[in-house]
Amino acid sequence: MQGFSREPGTTGPITAITLPKQGERRVWGWAIIIAVGGFLFGFDTGVVSGALLYIAKDFHLSNSEKSSVVSVLLIGAMIGALVAGRISDTLGRKKTVTLFGLVFAVGTLIAVVSQNYGTLIVARFVLGLAVGGASAQVPVYLGEISPANIRGRILSLNQLLITVGILCSYLIDLAFSHSGNWRAMFAFGAIPALVLSLGVWFVVPESPTWLFGRGRIEQLRQGLLKVTDGEQADEIIEVYRQRTEQAARQEAARGANEKGWRILLTPAVRPAMIVGVTMAALQQFGGINTIIYYAPTIIEQTGRSASNSIIYSVYIGIINFVMTVVAINTIDRLGRRQLLLISLAGMAGFVALLGFSFIWNWNSNLTLLFMVAYIAAFAGGLGPVFWVLVGEIFPTRAKADGSSAATTVNWLSNFIVSQSFLTVANGIGQGQTFLIFAGVCVVGLMFVGRYVPETKNRDTGEVQTALFRRFGMKPVPEARASTSAYDAGRADAGPAVNPADRRRDRR
User: Fold this and answer.
1) Model confidence over 435-483: pLDDT tens digits?
2) Short-list 340, 344, 364, CA closest to 352
3) Residues in Cβ contact with 169 at an 8 Å cutoff, skipping those fewer than 6 apart
């Protein structure tokens, strides 16, 4: 599972300002502490892959019970993601992320002391609440403390640490594989959970955005003085005051039926909504998390021992990490659309070969090669690009609700695939199941080719124009009253697109 945010690309009052180098370094330090939440996200979704081999033996689990141990976390994550925004708006980012760090620790403790299947299910559900909450609020918190010139890299830090968390979970599984001590595998997660809670509580300041929204101007100014001087701090506060007034004018321009979740069904937002939720489902129904969650179980089917299976899953974690780094470094050069097309084509081919390798009993080394290549194709494109796309595809006034809807569909799809994989594979065959995933990837390739525009170097209005063109529709003005309300919401817009970009998107 790759990282996501309820409000990807969220901007704070310091986005228009370049901080002194010393201030930037301090922001990076805060960001690393906050991004431990991303590490925990990756660790707790990945650690079960190796632990499940031994849990199943100790608790005598059936295939459906093994699936539940994996997928109940996703139910908790859906709930955690949905409630995190309201908790964060009430308590603030600082207290909310600290709270979810403690929830991580509590869930880990319950898992470690579990004596039966029921208690373990409770533990995984609690961990899911923390995973969902972290996935929703860590990127928001990072975006709101970051100046524009480093915000992209800081937001990528969360994505990177998710893959590091997955890799570390595999290494921890490997370290305890010889003893089969699955409790120790889970217990390791308590360390970063406490680092997150204590670090955020004692080191990281509250989000400037939240403080300004609550009228705590003096507290906001004191926090800004940690990264800049008094003159620039006052300038940042004034920038945010202007943006707040612009946002109020934009809100006044909306109609009665264009507020809250109802806005997602309006003609102006519908194309973005279709792209967002379809890509959310495709990312999961392409089968990625069957590999992330069940890699050792799948590898064991090739005839290798449990400990050897975990060793090979470490290689998968390394490839996932490396290719995510590659994607982060190429996404602004190659563009979102091109990476998606390359990624989906590779995923379709390699997961099909993986399926045939099981059906025709090919050499186990080939099976592992196809599995690793499939992971590389996903991590180098669809994995990280999807979350960037969700942050860019929706018009300004629908970004929060639109990305929240896509996120919820992503978690729901994740749950369905994870819960049903072992049962379906047992019923029709593991190879045949992978062929179904290949078919989904082909559908995804055709969908991206037809409906998904390039968003690189385009501001919100240009993205909407390109999106409507691909749907064969005329763009609908974002605000019915006047274009000024739309322009007021473009504080987060990127640089203007050049004519070459427009010609490219018409292809």
Assistant:
1) 999 999 999 999 999 999 988 777 667 888 889 899 888 765 544 433 3
2) 344
3) 42, 43, 44, 45, 46, 47, 49, 50, 185, 317
